[in-house]
Amino acid sequence: MLAYTVRRLLVSIPVLIASTFVVFLVVVNAGDPVANFAVSRQPAPSKAAVAAFARHIHADQPVAERYWNWITGVLHGDFGPSVQPNLDIGHDLFTRFRVTVTLVAAAMIIALLLAVLFGVFSAIRQYSVADYVITFFGFLFLAMPVFWFAVLLKQAGIWYNQQTGSQFLGTIGEKSPYLEVDTTWNQFTDHVGHLVLPTITLALVSFASWTRYTRASMLEVLGSDYVRLARAKGLRRGRVMTRHALRTALIPLTTVVALDIGIILGGAVVTETIFQWHGMGEMLVQAVTTIDVYRTMAWLLLSAVIVIGLNLIADLLYAVLDPRIRYD
Amino acid sequence: MTTTSSEGVRAGAANDAVLEVDGLGVEFPTEDGIVRAVRGVGYSLGRGESLGIVGESGAGKSVTAMAVMGLLPATAKVRGSVRFEGTELLGLPDGRLSDIRGKGIAMIFQDPMTSLNPVYTVGFQIAETLQRHHPDLKARDARTRAVELLGTVGIPSPERRVDNYPHELSGGMRQRVVIAIAMANDPDVIIADEPTTALDVTVQAQILDALETARAETGAALVLITHDLGVVAGHTDRVAVMYAGRIVETGSVEDIFYTPRMPYTLGLLGSLPRLDREEERLTPITGSPPSLLNLPPGCPFSPRCPMRRDVCDSDEPPLRPAGRDSHLSACHFAEELVDTGAEQVFDTAGADSEALARFADATSTGQPEEDSL
Amino acid sequence: MTDIQAPGSPGTEVPRSENEFTVKQRSQTQLILRRFLRHRAAMISLAVFLLILLWAFIGPHLWHYSYQKYTPDNSQAPSAKHPFGTNSSGYDSYAQVMRGTQTSLKIAILTALGSTLLGAVWGAIAGFYRGIVDAVMMRITDLVLTLPLFAIALVISSRTGGDWYWIAIVIAGLTWAYVSRVVRSTVLSLREKEFVEAARALGASDVRIIFRHLLPNSLGPIIVNATVLVATGILTETALSFLGFGVQPPDTSLGLLVSQAQTAVTTRPWLFYIPGAFIIAIALTINFIGDGLRDAFDPRQQRVRQ
């Protein structure tokens, strides 16, 4: 098991390097920050200033050299220069990661729990009214654009606050700006209040697809020969459902959840933009708009590490849960 | 139901029966209409007795078995009666039924590759059924018993194999595990649904031996469902031939093999390959079984029957005595089949019943190579 | 579904019955079509989707307002004159939604086509040649799969600008990997089949085997995936446009319309709900059609045992 883990870890390093190199090529070619600098400043900067700017952001180096310098720099904690003066990309990234990780984790956990609950229920009661209702809402949520639902939910939150006179549901930002010195409890409820609506938004899409997946997987297992044999052995329905059906049906879900992390991160960008969080979503939008190569790269590197890391965890979990996967 | 409802196979002494099936009917509503998968099947199984149920796929053999176990999907409509030791099983709540499943009636399924849960060890899956029916049994003792059972069904080094996962065992070994599960709680009846069909020919005989061992150990009665007449000949006392959801002929093995009284049975016998005669030609039954959807009136076999006459298209013949008392046949012209071979009814060369029976014995007692793990 | 043949053996007169239990033989295509036509949700969805398609492409020619011309009416609620109302600048919302739907559909459909074409050919070649070719090609596929679709699309779209085909190309360039995986696994199982061996034995070239035998026989999963990709395409494009990285004014898309209406949800709700409803309607119908197609191509009966 340990050897297997180490081997999988070693395999993911070249994947990460290749992936970041491709991404680096894309990002470097996706915009010209130097030209942007030259035209967007008032008054127009001198030639020397433009050249100095190009040197500052390493735009004067060949791409391969830039990549090499960047990746070795990252290993020492240096994420490269930003186009914005006085912006430490590493610090920026980790502050914003702390903000976003709460949202993403909360959304994933809620989506997963509800998806398993509804998916299993839907499968056990196949073709019942409840099954049709769950299936219909599953399809509806799959078709619902995150941004549209987020705007709607934000309006609903504002309306709720107006109606009740409460300030619990935060609709702007990840926390109230004036609460820094307040009691721990108030800070906590403030955080939770701001988390509610964005979490619902972000959980929605994954919830829909994971419910459908759980249902299909559960149905397949319920129709399997070994579930039939478990029933023929005299096991009670409850035990067959939990020990034999659910236990086996949930194994492939680990892979699906891990693969969907990319989609969730994309959804987080949209959600954070609408709820005006100062998280990774805002960082990406700002970095792309300002043609900030290293800031964009920092974002994409972290997301690649998350994607590859989660898939690695899913693989290991799969190997633990399914004895058919061998460790050698 | 019509006249078919009370027909059936009767054991010599009805009081001694462990399992009595009477007028069993199963219907499945589908998009295209109602599929009448089983239409009035009845049989009675004495203690320790063995009954073979033979027929083509789709004849309703497995559905009958699943109806007895109460394992049909909820959409299936089941009628008639299934009594186990005098208790009516149809309509019994699932909790009560599950007490009988595994302990009173055990079942073995066709495909050992998919019958075992891939994520649990075989030992766990045997211990699970032991502890289900003996709640006081300690985990240690259940495991010890599981090892014993694995040894009984012929798995080498069972104390090692008990911790194996199903995927680490061959198909033959897995079917032995399924047999071990079936015999674990000393059932009164074992229903084996095509237990050897999915296996290599070389392994089939060994699995049938393991099944015989299980029967000998538990004294269970056996319902052996198969499409292989050779298997029936070597392992059962009585035979019921099913066609289109009904029993069309039933009797002792001798009755069926030596004096068949239904053209379908004759055809089945005639389509078996034989090793004892040169220039052998098989007599195939042409066509395929009818769709059980919107079955027209008349004998369902008539479209394929070389003896068909007008009455066959209008009236479905009931199961009637033909020859000796326990020998029943559902054919309008059963009497005409006295001393008739398949070659006379169907095509050219037919089956010599005696040789067939010998062939069947030979295949079931032969010693093919050991199946590997 | 086998036909009963009368055994015309000499000597015995075999009666040929009137009530043979034969089912009319159907071709595979007919069976699939029949199963699809039976799928009620898919059929309704197909009708709705086609109506939206026709409306979006033919409608603008028949409607008397243009999506880029002011009308004298500002911020009007839906009426007979302006069925979807107008926005604060006086644009007719009906014309704008029509145009937005057209643009969004164009992008979504081109995305699905491009992605499917590239993915199918890529997957078929990898699956057909196996070995080193397969290994290299599939590593590239895996690499594309690790790229976060939305973020990369955002980066590239910021450069390529708002032309609708560029957006489609970018999304297709990031989604084809899913298709290629599916097609590869189908081809891997198909290439062992007898008809492929037969074609090879007859001396068919690799290209011919791939394009005449393997791809047509993988059509089921390919079509199902292409359908789902239309939904992915429209949701991705509208999200990009919403954030300002997709379709740019003066052109419009459903995502852009929702974005422009963000602040008017309570004051001019028609501007927000109508384009949103169109996105949902398109994605929903597409998903139902995909579901119907999947059932039609792969009719595994899933039963629950009690």
From TrEMBL, chain A:
Gene3D superfamilies: MetI-like
Matches recorded under SUPFAM superfamilies: MetI-like
Transmembrane feature ranges: 9-28, 97-120, 132-151, 192-210, 249-277, 297-321
Main location: membrane
Keyword Plastid: no
Subcellular localization, as worded in the UniProt entry: Cell membrane
Annotated PROSITE patterns: ABC_TM1 (PS50928)
Biological processes annotated in GO: transmembrane transport
Domain called ABC transmembrane type-1: residue spans: 97-318
Keywords: Cell membrane, Membrane, Transmembrane, Transmembrane helix, Transport
Membrane topology: Multi-pass membrane protein
Matching Pfam families: BPD_transp_1 (PF00528), BPD_transp_1_N (PF19300)
CDD domains: TM_PBP2
GO-annotated cellular components: plasma membrane
Family (UniProt): Belongs to the binding-protein-dependent transport system permease family.
Name of this chain's protein: ABC transporter permease
UniProt lineage: Bacteria, Bacillati, Actinomycetota, Actinomycetes, Kitasatosporales
From TrEMBL, chain B:
One GO MF term attached to the UniProt entry: ATP hydrolysis activity
InterPro entries, A to Z: AAA+_ATPase (IPR003593), ABC_Ni/Peptide_Import (IPR050388), ABC_transporter-like_ATP-bd (IPR003439), ABC_transporter-like_CS (IPR017871), Oligopep_ABC_C (IPR013563), P-loop_NTPase (IPR027417)
Subcellular location: Cell membrane
Protein name (database record): Dipeptide/oligopeptide/nickel ABC transporter ATP-binding protein
Annotated ranges, domain ABC transporter: 19-269
Topology of this chain in the membrane: Peripheral membrane protein
Family: Belongs to the ABC transporter superfamily.
Record-level GO cellular component terms: plasma membrane
Single biological process term from Gene Ontology: peptide transport
NCBIfam families hit by this protein: oligo_HPY
Keyword terms: ATP-binding, Cell membrane, Membrane, Nucleotide-binding, Transport
Record Pfam families: ABC_tran, oligo_HPY
Taxonomy, superkingdom: Bacteria
Major localization class: membrane
From TrEMBL, chain C:
Domain of life: Bacteria
Gene Ontology cellular-component annotations: plasma membrane
Membrane-topology descriptor: Multi-pass membrane protein
Domain ABC transmembrane type-1, chain residue ranges per copy: 101-290
SUPFAM superfamilies xref list: MetI-like (SSF161098)
PROSITE patterns: ABC_TM1
BP GO annotations: peptide transport; protein transport; transmembrane transport
Record's subcellular location: Cell inner membrane; Cell membrane
Keyword Transmembrane helix recorded: yes
Annotated region described as Disordered, given as residue ranges: 1-20
Similarity comment: Belongs to the binding-protein-dependent transport system permease family. OppBC subfamily.
PANTHER family (alphabetical): OLIGOPEPTIDE TRANSPORT SYSTEM PERMEASE PROTEIN APPC, OLIGOPEPTIDE TRANSPORT SYSTEM PERMEASE PROTEIN OPPC
Protein name as catalogued: Oligopeptide transport system permease protein OppC
